[in-house]
Design goal:
The protein is α/β, with parallel strands linked by helices. 34% of the residues lie in helices and 21% in strands. It folds into two domains: 100 residues, Leucine Dehydrogenase, chain A, domain 1 (Rossmann fold, 3-Layer(aba) Sandwich); 130 residues, NAD(P)-binding Rossmann-like Domain (Rossmann fold), CATH 3.40.50.720. The protein has a six-stranded mixed beta sheet. The protein starts with 9 loop residues before the first strand and ends in a 14-residue tail after the last helix.
């Protein structure tokens, strides 16, 4: 179904800087059209976050995704934040609610839901031993979600002070990234930008350790088949690429905004099409 944009069209979008490259419009607009929702999802490049949010309220926008570099900076600008997002310390979803003519910015986090759902298709998280690489906002959300599901998490990072601080916040173990080759477990997750274009020829860990893990997940999706994932497949691991987490956090956003079940497979298809990849190719999908 095609959405006819008119005076009743409801606006959603994604706020970040830069943001024009985002794949989120592809999946959200396809989902709105499939369900016959008179809605459109647009990229909103924002340099002044406070002014941008006030502008969205004034324009009647109903909700936005929040991406780099604003997931933490947006928190003090919100009227409400749910308990999970507060624990994580980052917001990636904002609802703009109208109560008696007054607009309220309400923040939540679906990144952890996206990671958990993608991982749960490959492994039982309760009791799983997970090595998580990184100490940024993505690692914080993923680590929180894993611990909520009863996984055992070891956090590895290059910067000791930041890594130890996050491990203390989460209540998990920490080790230097340089010592990652001494670790083993059920799952290895790269929550860093290592391997992202244009430096796609590097991996965060040596290929020799990958056979110690059953599942390897990379949140990088440009390129989709990162060096880490290609080496993990050679080592016999099941792999999960970065589009799967992006998909499922978007599914959770869509269902929060609309109150309706999201057309998951259509959203997945549109994401892969947007990257020029075909579903089913080796290293091309988390669904093998």
């Amino acid at each position: 179904m095609t959405v006819i944009i008119n005076g009743k069209t409801v606006l959603y979008g994604i706020v970040g800087n830069p943001v024009r490259h985002s794949l989120s419009p592809a999946m959200h607009n396809a989902a709105f059209a499939e369900l016959g929702e008179n809605c459109v999802y647009l990229p909103f490049p924002v340099q002044d976050l406070d002014a941008g949010l006030q502008g969205l309220k004034a324009l009647g926008v109903k909700g936005v995704s929040v991406t780099i570099p604003y997931k933490e900076a947006v928190i003090p600008l919100l009227d409400e934040i749910d308990s999970v997002a507060r624990q994580i310390g980052a917001v990636n979803t904002v609802e703009i609610k109208d109560v008696d003519g007054k607009k309220y910015l309400c923040g939540s986090n679906t990144d952890w839901l996206g990671a958990n759902r993608a991982l749960s298709e490959k492994v039982q998280l309760r009791g799983a031993k997970v090595v998580l690489l990184g100490a940024g906002g993505s690692a914080r959300a993923i680590g929180f979600g894993l611990l909520q599901q009863g996984a055992q998490v070891v956090l590895c990072s290059r910067t000791e002070s930041r890594g130890r601080a996050l491990a203390a916040d989460l209540g998990c173990l920490w080790c230097p990234l340089a010592d990652a080759d001494t670790l083993h477990g059920d799952v290895l997750i790269n929550a860093t930008s290592v391997g992202m274009q244009p430096e796609s020829d590097v991996s965060p860990v040596p290929a020799t350790i990958l056979s110690r893990f059953q599942v390897v997940m990379d949140i990088v999706y440009a390129p989709l088949a990162t060096r880490l994932l290609m080496e993990a497949e050679v080592a016999g691991c099941q792999v999960i690429n970065g589009l799967e987490m992006l998909l499922y956090q978007g599914v959770a956003q869509f269902e929060l905004w609309t109150g309706k079940p999201a057309p998951v497979e259509l959203m997945r298809q549109k994401l892969y099409q947007a990257t020029g990849n075909v579903l089913g190719l080796k290293s091309g999908t988390g669904k093998r």
